[in-house]
Design brief:
two-stranded parallel ribbon; 7 strands; single chain; elongated; five-stranded parallel β-sheet; 203 residues; alpha/beta; disordered C terminus
């Protein structure tokens, strides 16, 4: 009887431990994959500030929507963008190619998460929003010594920054190029520091 009792306790402990592990795994999964985004294919398709800047310059056809409030939009917005605040955009249908952006990319990703099933396949989110447009396109940091394999990419950033009236700061570090090495097919994007006031205003 003592052996059976001890075995029962051991089994209960194992079951309790398994339940704890499963609960912990569920909690982790909820952070890694938000509700409605369990499948990798359900994640928003990002567009970079460099690609968007080229598209605007070349007068490509798409609807660029600023999801921030009117005050933030009036203070600064991307060329050709129209202001449709987040709450209003939630209730609208978009049939043409649409690119959403916000202060960083929080509101734009949130809108996509809520509406991704009804949005068209051409819907995109501007990675980094106004923040990255400001810091990575208008006022980028670029290396003084440019590796040969990165010259085309750097020259493109320089050309676009000049075109949009920006100013480049040349630095010793070449790590600043890592940001520009990501393309639209990458699963993960670099995490930029969110320090500029343009990010916080209007989210």
């Amino acid at each position: 009887m003592k052996v059976n009792k001890l075995s029962g306790l051991s089994l209960n402990k194992r079951l309790a431990g398994l339940a704890f592990v499963l609960a912990a795994s569920a909690m982790v999964a909820s952070f890694v994959a938000p509700e409605g985004l369990k499948n990798q294919n359900d994640r928003p398709r990002f567009i970079s500030v460099v690609t968007l800047a080229n598209a605007i310059k070349n007068r490509e056809e798409f609807l660029l929507i600023d999801l921030r409030d009117a005050e933030a939009y009036e203070e600064f917005h991307l060329p050709s963008a129209v202001n449709i605040p987040y709450d209003s955009a939630l209730a609208m249908d978009f049939e043409s190619k649409v690119i959403f952006y916000s202060g960083d990319d929080y509101l734009a990703k949130r809108l996509w998460e809520k509406r991704h099933e009804s949005l068209g396949p051409n819907t995109m989110v501007l990675y980094g929003g106004v923040h990255d447009w400001y810091e990575k396109l208008l006022y980028p940091e670029l290396p003084i010594n440019i590796p040969e394999e990165h010259k085309t990419m750097v020259n493109q950033v320089i050309e676009l920054s000049t075109y949009y009236g920006g100013q480049i700061e040349f630095v010793e570090s070449q790590e600043v190029l890592e940001y520009y090495e990501y393309d639209l097919n990458k699963k993960y994007w670099p995490r930029a520091k969110r320090t500029n006031g343009l990010v916080r205003k209007g989210c």
